UniProtKB/TrEMBL annotation, chain A:
Protein name: NADH-quinone oxidoreductase subunit H
Keyword Transmembrane helix: yes
PANTHER family the record matches: NADH DEHYDROGENASE SUBUNIT 1, NADH-UBIQUINONE OXIDOREDUCTASE CHAIN 1
One GO-annotated biological process of the protein: aerobic respiration
Topology term for the membrane: Multi-pass membrane protein
Cross-referenced InterPro entries: NADH_UbQ_OxRdtase_su1/FPO
Organism in which the protein naturally occurs: Marinobacter vulgaris
TM segment ranges: 55-78, 90-111, 123-143, 163-182, 242-263, 275-297
Source taxonomy: Bacteria, Pseudomonadati, Pseudomonadota, Gammaproteobacteria, Pseudomonadales
Repeat in keyword set: no
Family assignment from sequence similarity: Belongs to the complex I subunit 1 family.
GO cellular component, one term: plasma membrane
Keywords for this protein: Membrane, NAD, Transmembrane, Transmembrane helix
Cellular localization per UniProt: Cell membrane; Membrane
Automatic annotation (TrEMBL), chain B:
Protein name per UniProt: NADH-quinone oxidoreductase subunit
Organism: Marinobacter vulgaris
Record flagged with keyword Ribonucleoprotein: no
Native organism taxonomy: Bacteria, Pseudomonadati, Pseudomonadota, Gammaproteobacteria, Pseudomonadales
Source organism, top-level taxon: Bacteria
Transmembrane annotation, as ranges: 6-28, 62-83, 89-112
Amino acid sequence: MTVAIVLLALLGSAWLLAVIEGWMTTGRLSPAAPLYSGLAHLGRESIVPRSPDRVFFEAAPVLLLVVAVLGMAVLPLAPDLIIADLGTGALFINAALAYVLVAVIMAGWGPDGAYAMIGGWRFLGQLIAYSMLIVMPITAVAMRAESLVNTAIVSSQAGLWNIVYQPLGFVLFFIAAMALAFRAPFDLPTAEGDLGGGVDAEYTGVRLAVLRLARLTLVVTLASATTVFYLGGWHGPLFPPWAWSLVKTLAVAVSMLLVGRYLPRIREADLMRWCWILGIPLALVNIIIVGLLILVVP
Amino acid sequence: MSGTQQYLLLLGMALGTVGVVLSLYGLARIMGPAQREPGKDVPASSGVLSRDPVWGRYHARYYGYALLFLAFDMEMAFMYPWAVVYKEVGMVALLDMGVFLAILFLGLLYGWSQGAFRRQ
Amino acid sequence: MSSDLTINSTGARQKRPSLLQKLVSRALARNLSCLIVPGPEVALAHGLDIRAAGLRISTTPRDASVLMIVGDISEKMCDAVAVLYAQMPRPRAILLVGGQTPSTLPGADISSGLSQDQLTEAVGRLERAFADGAFVDSPEEFDSSVLHARIEYVCPMHPEVVEDEPGSCPKCGMDLVAREAGESTPDHEHHHDHEHHRHEHEHYHDQEQQSHHDHEHHHDHQHHHDHKHQHGESDDHSEHEHSGHDHGEHDHSGHDHEEHDHGGHDHGASGFMSMIEVTKDLPRSADGLQMDWLEVPFGPVFPGLPGGLKLTLTLDGDGVTEGQATSLVGMATEGEGSEESQESEGSQESEEMDADTFIEHLASAIPLAPVSYRLLACLAIEQAAGLSDDQATTQARNSALERERIASHLGWLAQSGRQLGFAWLTQRASTLQLKVRDAGRDRIAELEPELRTLGTRLERTPLLKSRLKGIGVLPVDSSDLRGPVARAAEDGGDAWARLWQRLDEIAASLELLKSGEEPELPVLRDIGNASGTGKATVDTPRGEARLSLKLEHGKVKSYKLDTACSHHIDLVPKLVEGQELGDALLAVGSLDLSPWEVIS
């Protein structure tokens, strides 16, 4: 039952994001667009490149989707609305998200096309940049909650949300999450202007549909993680807990989609440089500040 | 729910997702076969039929960062358990980790001074 | 064009239409995405609003269901169009907007004129065609000669022996082995140069290669076509020239794609690979590592570059070691663009052309700046005919020129937005371009605040400055710079300076329009039956263009055109060398090259 509700919420959010994405690209807000788009993808041929690395090519979209779904499974929508409340939930998220890199590199290597391959390797550089900024802020969150259990992390924010308690961590995590989801302005592996679609370029028909669904789901999962770690999860007045979780998740997800629209794509060299010279020291400062706060403020 | 059950559930979800995707592929198959035509299966490269294989030794220019990344990623493995017990242990924990991190960040500074943070 | 509105049988999918197919067809019809050839910027310059017509713009053939061809397509682009069509997944359709069917394609599914209304109406027909005809019983295969790799025959022992026919080697008598010819670019002349070809092929298929030799050959080859191109020999070249000449050892059987996996990644037959052995003949990068270099085409239909411009980059990882830009849509030669003149190239004694026809010809050959070239032709002809300037006409014409400058720079901004993944900029700039394109003075005055805020917004956009600053810095000794590129050269000469130069020019043009006459398209004044020679210079949006022509009895006897882009395109190799891929593309983009204005 819980599984069904969470998956429905995930799918519903992805649907909503697809509608908003369609609205941004076509200027029309049509709630049925994802349905038509999905059906149209079913109707199109799904081309397999000649002599691809077939395993990589086929596995990439599926792996990306599985990763996003599993990530969502350990995040709570409400105190009892969680599929698997693992003892190491926060770590599990990390482990699952590491496979995004694997999926992207597989998608890049698989078709034996230059654009896709460069896109895949670019993403490896991107991971090296953003990865520490996912991990280190989560550490600070776990310090406050004294636990890696995701429900405990939400409970620890009952009085004060982490976005207020550790705003620096929130900013770093939000940026890193966008880089992880490779949305604009961090869409280096799929850059159209640089790589004509990059790792997405060789997927057509139903495989493309799965890939797009996976990417939207990933955004939802990351938004949900942001909500759980920083926005107090289900906490909020009046409405039932699950509603708060959903509203916060969607707000974060939509802002992730919108931000990219108003920014040019970042240079990979800049991204790596800023992440390492600015981001990681800041993440460390965040850990130290949180560490002191925990000891000073009871 | 016990830990084992939770992981079984997660495994089930992974398999279920794969199953959904496979049934979508099956549905797409009903729509007819993909026509085999010349040129169609060559990776698209903006209007030029580029048949040359691209797999080869790729020059990843971020290897300077990559080496530093390894060090930091290892460090993170220690950070999680530390974070959980931090409040319990108190100030000592901060100093413990502080020493550890200080060494790492010295490494970061050294790498910076040696030009690790640029495209090679 | 089929009258009953179904899709061409080379575009439909094979399946007897059943209920499910009907449902899916309906969805397909509501979800049309089009790949625009030569590019979205041409559609914009013609005043077509693709989104408003109900089509989604796709950037790759893989994601497109409609191949939309705007205007007439040059001979060289026909091959590219065939490749793109072949790589689109079915069901797919061809939409012709104001042009002829390219020779390499089957007939168009839907044709339309070059106006927004006609386009909207055509999209309606297209939707019906998809709804009714996406699935048919017996589709046909689409085939074209460009889609087939040329098979050539090489001797396993003597790689310099390359024959078109099977047989035995003239040197050792061994049977020749078939292999797929490497590059099948639309540039067929490539294939005559066997020596070059062999090298290039080896570059990809054999790990043992002499890339620097390759590239030297490549350049020799380029020099045949393009004498203007200067190739600076860097120190690196000489340093690594020693890599072996012993071609004899290479195993060419691995080149046959039909039977083998790519040779690209299996480095040898033996289980153990020594890294030193594997890499010993690979090209050496700037940091001393030996890597595979790839020659990757960007264009002619690449989302980050103007359509018709083909950039070929040699990539070492994601860095560019060298690059070359060619135009596939440029004006044919000096003289006329017609077939006859191509044969009498150089002599300039081309066929006569009526003065008005000449003006139309020039304006339509350059879709990104038709007004400027119309004006240029009018001025030159009028001067040849000995007409003196007429104050009012000149002012009205100049207003039209300034209006086009604004529109053209907005088009460049939209194109930059596409390149940068900056969706807001693309949308804003193209909306404004469509509004400004044929606006009167009052309308432009109304639009002025919007145009001016564009600059303010860009100034405030985070990341933009760090993205553009220091990119595409021109070499100090660059000569023949014109237009915004030249004017921005004093101000740092990078992509950021060029952006601001163009924004400033938009502002300056607005001022000029305010004080000037109502813009009026240049129309040739009555020249009668005059003869003479004339010369004119117009500062087009991309820089000065000069035209000199000879008029005889009211007909243009011969002409010589000199454009900014013909010179700017030669800057490309130096701009991209050693840059990261994204930076290199941005540097090329910041030049605002119009491939149409490149005279080959």
